[in-house]
Protein backbone atom coordinates (compact mmCIF):
# COMPACT_ATOMS: atom_id res chain seq x y z
CA UNK A 1 0.00 0.00 0.00
CA UNK A 2 1.42 3.33 -1.08
CA UNK A 3 0.55 6.28 1.14
CA UNK A 4 -1.14 9.34 -0.33
CA UNK A 5 1.27 11.83 -1.82
CA UNK A 6 1.44 15.59 -1.56
CA UNK A 7 1.01 15.71 -5.33
CA UNK A 8 -2.47 14.18 -5.15
CA UNK A 9 -3.44 16.43 -2.25
CA UNK A 10 -2.27 19.59 -4.06
CA UNK A 11 -3.89 18.56 -7.36
CA UNK A 12 -7.24 17.77 -5.72
CA UNK A 13 -7.19 21.17 -4.00
CA UNK A 14 -6.38 22.90 -7.29
CA UNK A 15 -3.03 24.22 -6.04
CA UNK A 16 -0.95 22.90 -8.96
CA UNK A 17 -0.71 25.08 -12.08
CA UNK A 18 -1.31 22.10 -14.36
CA UNK A 19 -4.19 20.34 -16.13
CA UNK A 20 -4.74 17.61 -18.73
CA UNK A 21 -5.65 18.59 -22.28
CA UNK A 22 -7.78 15.87 -23.88
CA UNK A 23 -8.15 17.51 -27.30
CA UNK A 24 -6.81 15.26 -30.04
CA UNK A 25 -5.67 11.66 -29.85
CA UNK A 26 -2.83 12.24 -27.40
CA UNK A 27 -3.18 13.61 -23.88
CA UNK A 28 -1.06 16.64 -23.16
CA UNK A 29 -0.26 18.84 -20.21
CA UNK A 30 -1.54 22.39 -20.05
CA UNK A 31 0.34 24.75 -17.75
CA UNK A 32 -1.57 27.65 -16.21
CA UNK A 33 1.70 29.60 -16.29
CA UNK A 34 5.02 28.88 -17.96
CA UNK A 35 7.16 26.25 -16.17
CA UNK A 36 10.13 28.65 -16.19
CA UNK A 37 8.14 31.09 -14.01
CA UNK A 38 7.31 28.55 -11.29
CA UNK A 39 8.88 28.41 -7.85
CA UNK A 40 11.03 25.28 -8.25
CA UNK A 41 11.61 25.04 -4.49
CA UNK A 42 7.89 24.45 -4.03
CA UNK A 43 6.80 22.56 -7.14
CA UNK A 44 9.69 20.31 -8.21
CA UNK A 45 9.72 18.26 -4.95
CA UNK A 46 5.93 17.90 -5.19
CA UNK A 47 6.19 16.59 -8.75
CA UNK A 48 8.95 14.17 -7.72
CA UNK A 49 6.73 12.98 -4.88
CA UNK A 50 4.00 12.44 -7.46
CA UNK A 51 6.15 9.79 -9.15
CA UNK A 52 4.76 7.37 -6.53
CA UNK A 53 1.23 7.79 -7.91
CA UNK A 54 -0.31 4.78 -9.62
CA UNK A 55 -3.68 6.25 -10.67
CA UNK A 56 -4.44 8.52 -13.57
CA UNK A 57 -4.54 11.50 -14.03
CA UNK A 58 -2.10 11.90 -11.12
CA UNK A 59 0.52 9.55 -12.56
CA UNK A 60 0.32 11.11 -16.03
CA UNK A 61 0.57 14.65 -14.69
CA UNK A 62 3.40 13.88 -12.27
CA UNK A 63 5.56 12.04 -14.82
CA UNK A 64 5.08 14.50 -17.66
CA UNK A 65 5.12 17.57 -15.43
CA UNK A 66 8.36 16.41 -13.85
CA UNK A 67 9.80 15.85 -17.32
CA UNK A 68 8.93 19.37 -18.46
CA UNK A 69 10.19 20.98 -15.26
CA UNK A 70 13.52 19.18 -15.62
CA UNK A 71 13.74 20.22 -19.28
CA UNK A 72 13.11 23.88 -18.63
CA UNK A 73 14.65 24.31 -15.17
CA UNK A 74 18.37 24.40 -16.01
CA UNK A 75 19.91 26.66 -13.33
CA UNK A 76 17.04 26.43 -10.83
CA UNK A 77 17.34 22.66 -10.29
CA UNK A 78 20.73 22.64 -8.51
CA UNK A 79 19.48 24.65 -5.54
CA UNK A 80 16.43 22.37 -5.12
CA UNK A 81 18.42 19.11 -5.29
CA UNK A 82 18.54 18.41 -1.49
CA UNK A 83 14.72 18.62 -1.35
CA UNK A 84 14.41 15.97 -4.10
CA UNK A 85 16.29 13.25 -2.21
CA UNK A 86 13.46 12.25 0.14
CA UNK A 87 10.83 11.94 -2.64
CA UNK A 88 13.29 9.90 -4.73
CA UNK A 89 14.13 7.68 -1.75
CA UNK A 90 10.43 7.14 -0.96
CA UNK A 91 9.66 6.26 -4.59
CA UNK A 92 12.46 3.70 -4.75
CA UNK A 93 11.49 2.30 -1.33
CA UNK A 94 8.01 1.37 -2.61
CA UNK A 95 9.73 -1.50 -4.47
CA UNK A 96 6.91 -1.27 -7.02
CA UNK A 97 8.31 -2.18 -10.44
CA UNK A 98 6.54 0.59 -12.40
CA UNK A 99 7.30 3.30 -9.85
CA UNK A 100 10.96 2.28 -9.65
CA UNK A 101 11.31 2.33 -13.46
CA UNK A 102 9.79 5.80 -13.71
CA UNK A 103 11.94 7.09 -10.84
CA UNK A 104 15.16 5.69 -12.32
CA UNK A 105 14.39 7.36 -15.65
CA UNK A 106 13.77 10.66 -13.85
CA UNK A 107 17.05 10.33 -11.93
CA UNK A 108 18.86 9.96 -15.27
CA UNK A 109 17.02 13.00 -16.63
CA UNK A 110 17.77 14.95 -13.43
CA UNK A 111 21.50 14.26 -13.63
CA UNK A 112 21.63 15.33 -17.30
CA UNK A 113 19.41 18.40 -16.83
CA UNK A 114 22.14 20.82 -15.79
CA UNK A 115 25.79 21.33 -14.99
CA UNK A 116 27.10 20.23 -11.60
CA UNK A 117 23.89 18.35 -10.71
CA UNK A 118 25.61 14.98 -11.07
CA UNK A 119 28.41 16.09 -8.76
CA UNK A 120 26.00 17.62 -6.26
CA UNK A 121 24.13 14.30 -6.09
CA UNK A 122 27.21 12.30 -4.97
CA UNK A 123 26.79 13.01 -1.20
CA UNK A 124 23.25 11.59 -1.39
CA UNK A 125 24.24 8.23 -2.92
CA UNK A 126 24.01 6.57 0.52
CA UNK A 127 20.30 7.36 0.62
CA UNK A 128 19.27 6.45 -2.92
CA UNK A 129 21.58 3.56 -3.90
CA UNK A 130 20.73 0.82 -1.33
CA UNK A 131 17.47 -0.10 -3.07
CA UNK A 132 19.28 -0.24 -6.40
CA UNK A 133 21.78 -2.68 -4.86
CA UNK A 134 18.91 -5.04 -4.00
CA UNK A 135 17.58 -5.11 -7.58
CA UNK A 136 20.76 -4.70 -9.61
CA UNK A 137 21.20 -8.41 -10.32
CA UNK A 138 17.54 -9.44 -10.53
CA UNK A 139 17.49 -10.39 -14.17
CA UNK A 140 14.51 -11.90 -15.90
CA UNK A 141 15.28 -15.39 -17.21
CA UNK A 142 12.84 -16.14 -20.00
CA UNK A 143 14.88 -18.72 -21.86
CA UNK A 144 14.55 -18.39 -25.62
CA UNK A 145 11.41 -16.25 -25.48
CA UNK A 146 11.26 -12.60 -26.49
CA UNK A 147 11.18 -9.85 -23.87
CA UNK A 148 8.84 -7.22 -25.28
CA UNK A 149 9.51 -4.90 -22.32
CA UNK A 150 12.90 -4.09 -23.89
CA UNK A 151 11.15 -1.66 -26.21
CA UNK A 152 9.81 0.34 -23.27
CA UNK A 153 13.07 0.11 -21.30
CA UNK A 154 11.34 -1.47 -18.30
CA UNK A 155 13.84 -4.15 -17.36
CA UNK A 156 14.70 -3.03 -13.84
CA UNK A 157 18.20 -4.51 -13.76
CA UNK A 158 19.21 -2.87 -17.04
CA UNK A 159 17.64 0.42 -15.99
CA UNK A 160 19.60 0.38 -12.72
CA UNK A 161 22.82 -0.30 -14.65
CA UNK A 162 22.10 2.61 -17.02
CA UNK A 163 21.33 4.90 -14.08
CA UNK A 164 24.53 3.95 -12.25
CA UNK A 165 26.56 4.57 -15.41
CA UNK A 166 24.88 7.97 -15.86
CA UNK A 167 25.62 8.83 -12.23
CA UNK A 168 29.26 7.81 -12.67
CA UNK A 169 29.74 9.74 -15.93
CA UNK A 170 28.20 12.93 -14.56
CA UNK A 171 29.27 12.65 -10.91
CA UNK A 172 32.88 13.70 -11.16
CA UNK A 173 35.92 11.92 -9.75
CA UNK A 174 34.31 10.77 -6.47
CA UNK A 175 31.26 9.18 -8.08
CA UNK A 176 32.76 5.75 -8.82
CA UNK A 177 34.19 5.31 -5.32
CA UNK A 178 30.86 6.17 -3.71
CA UNK A 179 28.88 3.92 -6.06
CA UNK A 180 31.31 1.04 -5.48
CA UNK A 181 30.98 1.51 -1.70
CA UNK A 182 27.19 1.15 -1.87
CA UNK A 183 27.05 -1.41 -4.70
CA UNK A 184 30.15 -3.66 -4.50
CA UNK A 185 29.29 -5.58 -7.70
CA UNK A 186 29.27 -2.43 -9.85
CA UNK A 187 31.95 -2.26 -12.54
CA UNK A 188 33.06 1.11 -13.86
CA UNK A 189 32.03 2.18 -17.33
CA UNK A 190 34.81 4.78 -17.51
CA UNK A 191 37.92 2.58 -17.46
What's the β-strand tally?
A: 2
Question: In one word, what is the shape?
Answer: globular
Mean pLDDT, all residues: 88
Topology order in helix (H) and strand (E) letters: HEEHHHHHHHH
Strand content is under 5%
Helix/strand structural class: mainly alpha
Residue runs with pLDDT of under 50 for 5 or more positions:
none
Keywords:
single chain, mainly alpha, 9 helices, Parkin co-regulated protein, Hsp90 protein binding, Parkin_co-regulated_protein, Hsp70 protein binding
Summed up, what is this model?
By secondary structure, the protein is mainly alpha-helical. Helix content is 55%, strand content 4%.
Characterize the structure shown.
The chain is mainly α. The chain has nine helices and two strands; from the N terminus they run αββαααααααα. The relative contact order is 0.11. Helices cover 55% and strands 4% of the residues. The longest helix is centred in the middle third of the chain and has 17 residues, at 77-93. It has helices at residues 6-13, 40-49, 58-73, 77-93, 97-112, 117-121, 125-135, 156-170, 175-182, and strands at 18-21, 28-31. The protein starts with 5 loop residues before the first helix and ends in a 9-residue tail after the last helix. A hairpin with a 6-residue loop joins strand 1 and strand 2 (28-31). One of its GO terms (molecular function) is Hsp70 protein binding.
Amino acid sequence: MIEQTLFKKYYDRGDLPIAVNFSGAVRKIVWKCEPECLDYHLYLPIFFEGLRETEDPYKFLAVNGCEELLQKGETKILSVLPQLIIPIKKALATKNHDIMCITLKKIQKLVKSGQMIGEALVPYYRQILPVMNMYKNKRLNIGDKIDYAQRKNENLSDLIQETLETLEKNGGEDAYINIKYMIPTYESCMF
